[in-house]
Specification:
5-stranded mixed beta sheet; alpha+beta
């Protein structure tokens, strides 16, 4: 899955906003919030941090993306009035001199050449060359992120392969018939832990294995980790850290979610053990707790800092009353924010007619009452039609019966649409969708006494593509007679590129 800087920025910003919302709710809920609810809130944040997908569009002003060195992903065609040529109506529709004249349709132009940009004026001053180095910061930032992600993934995999091999070499089986998970005793680990993705197991320190009371408490705690799926969530959290290694909010979120996970496991363990073991369980937690462990690890340990241990011990010895209504409101609020975070920023065109001020009177456009019957698929777009050209008669399917060819010019992203109908029956229709750097024109011509459509296409970005295609209509499809294309790169900085070949260009022209 490729990630552009624009979508990556939206991904990071939406995830950061969710993190800030959950951190705020943690502070508001305080001791009134259930540990399980607090832990569940981080699950919704984690889903957003792991999925760089979008489900709907959110409008973003074009100026916000200038520094990203990006083209809008769904750019809209500029106003047709910006590129009017001589012989066109102000609406962008050509006066057809050959309408209903079957004699020589070769001179009848169906569609004027349309450009996605504004035609420059002859006296417009040339832009001054840049004095500084034009650095593509968008590309640089993307590569920095990719390199950091790869290095983080390699480090994470290496550390845990080494840890897994060390556990297997030093572990000793401990017989615990009342525990559903395998239990091992390992010397040298800082605290008891749950480890293993596919087949998780509990690893104990020798001091716990020798104390029946502590053993019972620790097994209940680690089994709670397994019931919550923390061996899987730990991997997901580490993956989020690898992907968002540069974002301090993600590091804070992972640390807080680990704390809330331990609190949730404490609550589950006490339910399994019974209220009579609450105080003894608290003493066991203080006894086996180790120093805080690194955040980037796929291990569920009982370690923690002083502040975390204080909160855990307080909740264990003096359980707070849970405000269920407040917890439910928090879950719904974060779920709503999580859904909104999957919006895709779509760049709006700052030069669109609806946003560009115009101090002059708009040119008169011939009123259009309705879309003709030959355009049944365009009926819903009737309000966006700028004009309708006069029909032209041509035999595009070469069956001896002339068709009526008609053109609509639209003001939405579809620059124009053409259809051919025969005796009231629609045979062929097509619309052109032009993006920045693209041009397309359609002509009616004759080859060997037969009528054909000639399509001319130009696309220019980092590479240039020219194409001519001559075709007739075969049902609702195009029957190609001849085509020729030319492709070369405008950007010659890469090591491998398609150079411009003058001989090929001469043949094309």
């Amino acid at each position: 899955m490729s990630i552009s800087l624009l979508s990556g920025t939206a991904w990071a910003v939406s995830g950061s906003a969710l993190i800030l919302a959950v951190l705020l709710l943690r502070a508001v809920l305080g001791r009134r919030g259930s540990a399980g609810v607090r832990y569940a809130l981080w699950g919704m944040v984690l889903v957003r941090l792991l999925l760089p997908i979008t489900l709907f569009s959110l409008p973003v002003p074009a100026g916000m993306t200038d520094w990203l060195d990006l083209q809008p992903a769904d750019a809209v065609q500029t106003s047709p009035a910006d590129g009017l040529q001589q012989g066109q109506h102000p609406s962008g529709v050509v006066d057809f001199q050959g309408a209903d004249v079957p004699g020589n349709p070769a001179d009848s132009v169906l569609i004027p050449e349309q450009s996605s940009g504004t035609v420059p004026e002859e006296n417009a001053p040339a832009s001054a060359p840049s004095d500084g180095l034009d650095v593509p910061w968008g590309t640089v930032l993307l590569w920095v992120w990719r390199i950091g992600t790869v290095l983080g993934a390699v480090w994470l995999v290496g550390v845990h392969i080494r840890f897994s091999m060390d556990l297997r070499r030093r572990r000793k089986v401990l017989d615990c018939p009342d525990c559903a998970l395998p239990v091992y005793v390992v010397e040298g680990i800082p605290s008891p832990c749950l480890y293993g993705l596919i087949r998780p197991a509990i690893y104990l320190i020798p001091a716990v294995a020798e104390d029946p009371v502590a053993l019972r408490h620790v097994l209940a705690h680690e089994c709670a980790h397994a019931r919550h799926g923390d061996h899987i969530w730990n991997l997901a959290r580490c993956t989020a850290l690898v992907l968002h290694w540069w974002n301090p909010l993600v590091w804070a979120a992972v640390s807080c979610s680990r704390t809330d996970g331990e609190l949730a496991c404490d609550a589950t363990a006490i339910r399994l053990l019974g209220e009579q073991d609450r105080a003894a369980y608290g003493r066991t937690v203080l006894q086996v707790a180790a120093e805080p462990q690194p955040v980037l690890q796929i291990v569920s340990t009982m370690g923690g800092g002083k502040r975390e241990l204080k909160e855990r011990f307080t909740r264990i010895t003096a359980p707070p009353r849970t405000a269920m209504a407040l917890c439910l409101a928090a879950v719904l609020f974060v779920a709503f924010l999580a859904g909104c975070s999957f919006g895709n920023p779509s760049v709006s065109d700052a030069n669109s007619p609806s946003q560009t001020p115009n101090n002059t009177e708009p040119p008169a456009v011939a009123p259009t009452q309705a879309v003709p019957a030959v355009f049944p698929e365009m009926q819903e777009l009737s309000e966006g039609v700028l004009g309708i050209a006069e029909p032209v008669s041509a035999d595009l399917n070469h069956n001896g019966v002339p068709e009526t060819v008609q053109v609509l010019y639209l003001e939405n992203s579809e620059a124009w649409a053409v259809s051919a109908s025969e005796e009231g029956r629609l045979l062929y229709s097509k619309s052109a969708e032009l993006y920045p750097g693209e041009q397309e024109a359609l002509f009616l011509c004759t080859v060997g006494g037969e009528d054909y459509l000639l399509r001319y296409q130009v696309s220019s970005s980092l590479s240039t593509y020219w194409n001519y295609a001559v075709f007739s209509v075969d049902g609702d499809s195009e029957k190609l007679l001849d085509t020729i294309e030319l492709r070369f790169d405008d950007d010659l900085t890469p090591q491998y590129h398609i150079p411009f070949q003058p001989a090929a260009g001469a043949v094309f022209l």
